[in-house]
Amino acid sequence: MTDSAREADVIVVGAGPAGSTTAYYLAQAGLDVLLLEKTAFPREKVCGDGLTPRAVKSLIGMGVDIDAPGWIRNKGLRIYGGGVRLELPWPELANYPDFGLVRTRIDFDEILADRAVKAGARLHQRTNVTEPVVDERTGRIKGVIAKQNGEEVTFSAPLVVAADGNSSRLSLAMGLRKREDRPIGVAVRRYYESPRHDDDYLESWLELWDRDDKGDARLLPGYGWVFGVGDGTSNIGLGLLNTSKGFGNTDYRAMLKSWVAGMPEEWGFAEENATGPIRGAALPMGFNRQPHYTRGLLLVGDSGGMINPFNGEGIAYAMESGEYAADVIVQALARPTPAQRERALYDYPRVLKEAYGGYYTVGRLFVKAIGDPRVMKFATTHGLPHPTLMRFTLKLLANLTDPRGGDAMDRIINAMSKLAPAA
Ligand SMILES: Cc1cc2nc3c(=O)[nH]c(=O)nc-3n(C[C@H](O)[C@H](O)[C@H](O)COP(=O)(O)OP(=O)(O)OC[C@H]3O[C@@H](n4cnc5c(N)ncnc54)[C@H](O)[C@@H]3O)c2cc1C
After folding, report:
1. Residues 343-363: pLDDT tens digits?
2. 165 CA to centre of ligand 1 in angstroms
3. What Gene3D superfamilies does the record point to (predicted)?
């Protein structure tokens, strides 16, 4: 590799949704971008594979062909809880489409990385970033060291984006640890062959029941989902937040098995129909790693803990934060002096706080409240039977409102998010 092949305007570490979106928008603006990914596509990523209208909007913005084969659309959210089964269509809004999608991460991430490459980003797969290169005098990051085909390679750029997911070794190496005062979830999922694979609703279970042979039921902690993938399988999973009592001492795999064992037989969620093992991963929420900009390093997606605490959705926020980061970087790099560049870059954490800060604060209060099973029980018993209240709840949980000209529900949610302190 020549020297210039290892230099760029910006290095993006990690080609998940956050990294590929960042690289796409940077390349679109004409910047020279290196996108470094430790795995090789196609590759698995543990996820529910559910995309709300928020994520669909980002996909459309990046020019992804969502009419191509492999995408399955959904009309809304089906909720099970408190003995009730409720179907809520996605809201009709000016700002978002009224449908969601499902696509497994096996090729979802590759499609986004392809968009970045088509825009001009230089993608290096099987390139494991092991440490930052830091300027001793200023403490700023000025590149990264990576392992490529067993060899150490140094890549250089004045700005680096950490898009390396929940564990973000790059952020850690730059001294950015997780905040303990933020919610974090753990979730597991498994694919089963099922006649429900082409479900046109995303399904959310607010209560998980473990039924024994005698028909006695025991309430398990956590929430679950059943998302039809459209390829003959369904993605079934469950998660638990650290605000719940069972967090840390739960056998998630056993819990998933006992939960699906209680489901109707004809759905096919039986051991012999499982197409792979149960796999799990963490969900970092509510800005659990900060600051989002420091010394030449910007954090996007899970590395900055950007999963929505209300519903565990992370792909939309990974993509949106990638676009915000790219915007800020493009403006900053066009400034003539280092001081002016720095001023522009410090706008990134402010932009994020303005977009999500207040909403995430309300989300933190929400997960704290529902961590108490009595509150959850009250909410499912008294909330679910009220259609208007549930339409409001869907908008709140999925963060789907119109910022301008929305209805009364939109105005309440937007006002709450504005009034709550961003932290
Ligand atoms: C069980 C589960 C279910 C979920 N369900 C949903 C859902 O249904 N919908 C939804 O929207 N969100 C869901 N999420 C959250 C979602 O998966 C994440 O928020 C999303 O993947 C974040 O994207 P990202 O690009 O920030 O990080 P990631 O997707 O984690 O991507 C990080 C990338 O960086 C690469 N990388 C890491 N370290 C290095 C390194 N040192 N060098 C080079 N490359 C590196 C990785 O290989 C990876 O490609 C779920 C999460 C879990 C755990």
Report:
1. 999 999 999 999 999 999 999
2. 5
3. FAD/NAD(P)-binding domain
CB 94 within 8 Å of CB 401? no
Question: Please, where are the H alpha helices in 216-314?
Answer: 252-261
CA 32 and chain centroid, separation? 26
Nearest CA to ligand 1 atom 49: 16
Regarding pTM above 0.85, the answer is: yes
Contact indicator for 380, 82 with CB cutoff of 8 Å: yes
Cα dihedral 319, 321, 325, 331 sign: positive
- Residue 373 predicted with pLDDT over 80: no
Nearest to 223 by CA among 376, 385, 53, 388: 376
User: How many other CB atoms are found less than 10 A from the CB of residue 127?
Assistant: 22
Query: From the centroid of its chain, how far is CA 393?
Result: 20
Residue 18 alpha carbon, nearest atom of ligand 1: 25
- pLDDT tens-place string over residues 138-155: 999 999 999 999 999 999
Ligand 1 site residues (CB inside 6 A) read: 13-19, 36-39, 45-50, 55, 128-129, 163-165, 169, 187, 189, 237, 281, 283, 301-302, 307, 312-316, 318
Distance between Cα 148 and ligand 1 center (Å): 21
- Summary mean pLDDT of the chain: 94
Q: Which residue's alpha carbon is at the smallest distance from atom 50 of ligand 1?
A: 47
Question: In this structure, are strands 33-36 and 10-13 parallel, antiparallel, or unpaired?
Answer: parallel
DSSP states along 372-383:
SHHHHHHHHHHH
Question: Quick one: tokens of 73?
Answer: 């659309």
The answer to whether 33 touches 378, Cβ cutoff 8 Å, is: no
Residue 274: both structure tokens together: 């499982």
Which atom from ligand 1 is nearest to the alpha carbon of 235? 8
- Alpha helices by DSSP H, listed for 3-136, are 17-28, 53-61, 105-119
CA count, 13 A, side-chain hemisphere, 364: 22
